[in-house]
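Researcher: Hi, I'm a grad student and pretty new to this. My advisor asked me to get structures for two proteins we've been looking at. I'm not sure of the right format, so I'll just paste the first sequence and hope you can take it from there.
Model: That works fine. Here's the first sequence with its structure tokens right after it:
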Amino acid sequence: MTKIIYTTVDEAPQLAAASLLPIIERFLAEAGLDVETRDISLAGRIIAAFPDHLTDAQRQSDALAELGELVKTADANVIKLPNISASVPQLVAAISELQAQGYGLPDYPEDPQTDDEKAVRAKYDAIKGSAVNPVLREGNSDRRAPAAVKAFAQANPHRMGKWVSDSKTRVATMGADDFRSNEASVTLADAATLRIEHVAGDTVTVMKDGLDMPAGTIVDSTFMSVKALKAFYDRTIADVAGEGTLFSLHMKATMMKVSDPIIFGHCVRQYLAPVFEAHGDTFAANGISPNGGLGTMLEKIADLPGGDAILAEIDATLTSRPPLYMVNSDKGITNLHVPSDVIIDASMPAVIRAGGKGWGPDGEEADTTCVIPDSSYAGVYAESIDYFKETGALDPATAGTVQNVGLMAQKAEEYGSHPTTFEVPAAGTMRVMSGDTVLMSHEVEAGDIWRMASTRKAPIENWIELAIERQAAENCRAIFWLDETRAHDAELLNYVRPALADRGLTDTFEIMAPTPATRASCEEIREGRTTIAITGNVLRDYLTDLFPILEVGTSAKMLSVVKLMQGGGLFETGAGGSAPKHVQQLMEENHLRWDSLGEFCALGESLRFAGTDKAKVMGDAVDAATEKLLSNGKSPGRKVGQDDNRASHVHFALYWAEALANQTADAELATAFEPVAKALADNLETILAEIKAGAGQPVDLGGYYHGDAAKTAAVMRPSATLNEIIG
């Protein structure tokens, strides 16, 4: 295996790649390894979706589809950086930028009426949200903090907020009439082609047909009552006013791109209920939806006749409500402004790490009521908060670690439910059919949110084997986070328990519902021990942010290996998102604080996976360089004037070259890198000075979503001396 695919993505990781990738290409060429890129960025996916609207020079192939096929082969060796999971406002902004650059793309139809508009909308909707990960993740997840990262975090503990027992911070969740409480689940004994129907009186409407499921597939269906959701919001808003806390909504409107924007929109609607009662018809007539967030609403209302008066009503209503948790207090960006601004797996750990505090409109920290409408996983965060209230903050200097083995292959569980999620058009019955047999059904009302999800047998069996493998390697406590009182988990346990019994491992693994598993894991890491959380797809996502943020300060430094089921490897560079605030700082101050540690970890694993002797030497040298970079304190600083991402790449290149020059396993590589190491060492101060020469000044990238390659290279590769050495 001599080819590594390095993905082109978005925002901070892509800017960092403009600096790091030339170094990787130069070094790997000495080992006979090729590095190819594939553009899976938001802009790249938009361009690929509309070839008929573009010139020959503008067209791009569908790189995501190509990679989707590659990951189903044994030849795949892909380093996958974080990409934007676009909300509608982000998608519209990217389209507008591309249009301004001369791309003849159609506008995003907010309210499609014609067949052409509906076709355009369908193409754009396939791009929004987490359209990338479900395609590439043809394997299950193995995520953990690398040993070097963990050791550094213990030696250099990050700041933790203070927890007090009388903190008012808590989680508010529905607990009834939600996805968790309404879930039904079956395991298919035989292969089947399923059909989703909506029945209203004598009218049967087929919502989705031709859903082919192999034997052994677990199929779930459930719904959230919109009436119960609105009542929950109203009740919680009143409770928060009495408690004197901040109101903070925590959703996953990117990954759950169909259901969660609707749930988010209902929160905006109920928070501004008097405004919607007075002007709801006007909003609807002008295509103003709360689902895209308060920010977009305010912009559109400002353009309406009488818009200033409506904006004044909104301000008055917000003043009468509890203060909102703020994304940016200085700029007045609230928790309800943009659905993609507050993503639960990042926002909830931030609150917990800060001692239960969030930022209010006054720019001060305050206790916050964390609103998580669906109760499926809310207990994890509620229990974490209760635990730290009782015991105080975790000490990163002595904390152990929670590793994760996650079931995610082949769009497992809720994260694969986008095509089978519906806002119910009218009161009636939603049902899942296999031929003439009703597998599951729910009585629903207009506006309810109904979905079907599935989890296939082969990924389940692979997940169990991966868990067994990890536990054997770590010889530590291992817990399946499964709740036998939940319909889906009960079906999953019918696979887990026999598999463990057949291997004589029943007593080696524990099975716990998520809430007690949370407390058990917190107790383990407080004592400095390692435990493995073996979870489904959503908890994989949530826990691989929660515990790393508590343990090492960030989830971007996780080692994330996806062992593809057909034998290939997908190496993800952490779980920390694409850091838009880092981009903002670069554009304003020419300082990029993004830490490429995740890229270094993924690169080392990818090289060893490549399978050649030279690649293994290269990979081991990457690990040595990473450890030295951490021990020497050469990670990026947050402030202008400190070493930034580009400077950290220089140190990484130096340490990598030195490790290769000093190793004895491959004399040819040692000879090749000795002069590289010397040149970097001799010119280190000059290179760093050239990088810092423009610090503090704004820079022009030629675009945000679709930057100009030459302008970006000029910003991210400003050292002529380094460029001459690397080539």
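Researcher: Oh nice, that was easy. Here's the second one.
Model: And its structure:
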Amino acid sequence: MTAKQSPLFLGIDTGGTYTDAVLWSEEGGPKGKVLAKAKALTTRHDLAVGISGAVDAVLEKAGTDPAAIKLVSMSTTLATNALVEGQGGRVALIMIGFSEADLARDGLKTALGTDPVVFCPGGHDVHGNAAQLDLSGLEAALPELGRSVSGFAVCAYFATRNPAHELAARDLIREKTGLPVTASHELSAKLGGPRRALTTLLNARLISMIDRLVAATEGFLGHRGIAAPLMVVRGDGALVSAAFARQRPIETILSGPAASLVGARHMTGLDDAMVSDIGGTTTDVAVLDGGRPRLDPEGATVGGFRTMVEAVAMRTFGLGGDSEVALEDGALTPKILLGPRRLVPLALAGMVHGEAVTAELERQLRAPNPGRMDGRFAVRTGVPDRLAAGLTAPEAKLYEAIGATPLALDRLLTSNAQNATLNRLVARGLVHICGFTPSDAAHVLGKQANWDAAAARLGAELFARRRDGRGQAIAATPEALAERVLVTLTRWSAEYILETAFAEDGLDGAATVAHALVQRAVDAHPGIARLTVALDRPVIGLGASAPLHYAGLAALVGNGCIVPEDTDVANALGAVVGQVRVSAEARVSQPREGLFRLASGQTVRDFTDEAKAIAAAEADVRAIVAERAKDAGTDNAEIDVATEFKVSTVEGQRMFIEAHVVAVASGRPRIAV
């Protein structure tokens, strides 16, 4: 790099289907300049393959020396997709001071599923006073748990006021098993034990996935001679170092969508817009207000679970180019249904596996009648064998029968019980289902041509000959079916955008209203009550397939739809133009009159003077956030501290209840020199 040359920035986005890469320079005006962009298929069995494919293509297009890259920043939808699809490693949940009844709150029992849970006496009260801790039950269970889980989640009662019991359990687990442990106080300072436990559980499940992603990226960069810091986009759009993200992968949920918001604002210059980002697995819809994404104060909701992760107020729907195409059950004229599960498109499976896929599709087409499992295959995802720990005997038997080459389901499955077993393997992230998707429909119509169009058409023929309630084929031709699928996807996209707008406006029943309005617009049946709807701001359409799927969107949402030139790499671009932003919190409470208790970080201290306690709290959070900012990847952070008091007035006298102190540090990430 010459003295006059601006540093080069490499952005990477690892999505469910594609890995994108973009090379960006600060030169070229306020928006900088995209020097090159490229895509490669995400390779879940070895993420480094997809990353290297995209980055190598970018470097070749730009003709750039890898050593000139001074910062690498990455966003990912892997964590989001895993939660939407119910995937992740098997984790043991350790609950200290809680009862089994607490599992019924905040969806914790549903999220836990069949994963093990251990209850231990202990925990603290609201002022940080300890109950008697007993970890003997945990210690007795650790030998078996250490062999059957990939990590641990520890949550203690009121750990945000005193984390001592979580720390004791964490240290014991690490000593006895050596496996990753997530403690709830490390992720959130908010009260609400079951929801904090849920957040901790999901974090522990995601550790191995994000660890593999970071390791694959770091390994690739090392091999290419790129000696630059690696950053990861968090769910609120901020950047953090890769090491920081490895410990707190839950904070990368909505990472890809958050990066896309940053990218959308950067590319269009619009301060107010609805942003809809369609990928392979999900559609993510959010609002730009005054140039900043709206944040969800209650925590991000993904896959039906409300977490304690501060993130963009993003509504994530299981709708994308690779969504499962299904048929409504029991209707005379059945509707096309999409998602929420992601399938491997037949066109993609055909491109990768060739005759192994197309020969089976042709065999099924020769059958005189359509089969229930036509056009469906199972294939291993290629994850390490250790992640298959804890399978039941039927699961293990079926998993052994599935290999690296897609196997037709009508050859694999012999009973409905086996179908349920297969779905459990899919939920564990061990197996993919291949089947017909909107991406296949686009190939059938010649609107997409990067995979095997012949395999897609065979799948469309099989699906089109399925019967409605009258016994008639649901579509006359594969092309008619494909057109119907794509129209459905655009229609559902409009419904989800309007649903998000209504929900942001606080309207109850947002989904029902959105569906009714879009139905009226599409079917051209205004009825007695004429209903129209128009957004007050345009839609920014993002994603590689946005130009296709959003072409007819404007008429359904009553405002313009802008698809930027570099929409296909909005996430990767957003990853390199963001800032590091971290926070730290402390609380001062009054257990009894004249005693002020400060809980900050992992320490609890008592003061007899309110002013001294507040000053200590502000000093603590400033020091903690400065250290976190360095760990997160910036050396020049600006720190703001805000203190909020809760007080009451009794007989004219001010009575201190609690103080909440928050420090926020922000700055551009450090770059290689």
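Researcher: Is there anything I should tell my advisor about the second?
Model: You could mention this: The chain has 21 helices and 29 strands.
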